[in-house]
Amino acid sequence: MVGIRALKKIWMDGRLVDWADAKVHVLTHGLHYGYSIFEGIRSHDTPKGPAIFRLKEHIERFSNSAKVYRMKLPYSAAEVERACVDLVRANGVPAVYLRPVAFSGYGEMGLDPTKSPIQVAVAAWEWGAYLGAEGLEHGVRATVSSWVRMDSRSLPPQAKCAANYANSALAKMEAVVAGYDEAILLNSQGMVAEGPGENIFRVKNDIVSSPPASSGILRGITRDSVVRFVADEGLSFLRTDFTREELFTADELFYSGTAAGITPIREVDGRPIGNGRYPITKRLQKRYDDAVRGRSPQYESWLTYVA
Ligand code: PPE
To answer: Are 288 and 162 found together in one domain?
Structure first.
């Protein structure tokens, strides 16, 4: 059985508790109705010790998710940021994945979440390459999902709510059962939206593109970093919708995300993408690696040092 290796501490409702003590009741409201918002952040080892990548932007998105859902967080953004820093320090492991989460706790049952207290926690664990080390290096095999990405008329994709991930799980399981590594979801207009837990990019004739926020995606922070890397590589970027067939005809495709990093897509539904090499994706991967590991002074303002 593969599982998460326990670290020492978890930050829960205002203090660091032992890993094994970070528990909730089975009648936790958010567990039943999906009223839970979360973030995914990474810290890495750098020459100046552990550093958290784009912490401010992640916590800002956390606050925005709460706002969309009328969730009154009992901690300020600064307090949640501090919780993340304290947690990395307390666990003594430099490279971790951090998971801030806020949810309606134990109190009332029934659909109105405002009747239950809001609980906030930050957990951290070691998480390797989301789509496998092999996938990160050589690319993954993807399939266009039969499940349509939910849109902002039903579940607002820009708010990182746990409920959105039921849609993601349907797509992910369908892909895995069919023998693929990952799914690509189309939106209700039939245009490419994103992966179940990643944004998507296309490269054609040296132009890098990604669907706009209005296509119904999570505004990825890695995606935002990639846009900067593209400019710094002297390449053009277009925020534009693309169709399913434009996936097949791309020179390169890749996923971006905190968990996934920058992962090339080598095949979509049995069609090999491009010539099987990923020169631009590799250049962007290198910039990302250098940025998160503190090897690029130009991106150092994105790092929050823990020491
Ligand atoms: N779209 C979705 C739907 C998504 O969940 C993520 C992150 C992204 C795009 C990329 O966003 P960003 O991490 O800011 O670049 N998905 C998180 C959760 C993955 C999970 O399985 O859990 C993540 O990568 O942390």
So the answer is: yes
Q: Give the pLDDT confidence of 217-263 residue by residue, as tens digits.
A: 999 999 999 999 999 999 999 999 999 999 999 999 999 999 999 99
Rounded to the nearest whole angstrom, what is the distance from the C-alpha of residue 307 to the centroid of ligand 1?
Answer: 27
Helix (H, G, I), strand (E, B) or coil at 7: coil
Domain with 244, as residue range(s), is 133-292
Catalytically active residues, by annotation? 160
Ligand 1 geometric centre to CA of 75 (Å): 23
The reply to whether ligand 1 has any atom less than 6 angstroms from the CB of 197 is yes
- CATH code, domain carrying 140: 3.20.10.10
Q: Whose CA is nearest to atom 16 of ligand 1?
A: 197
Q: Kindly state the average pLDDT of the residues 19-31.
A: 98
* CA 25 from centroid of its chain's CA atoms: 27
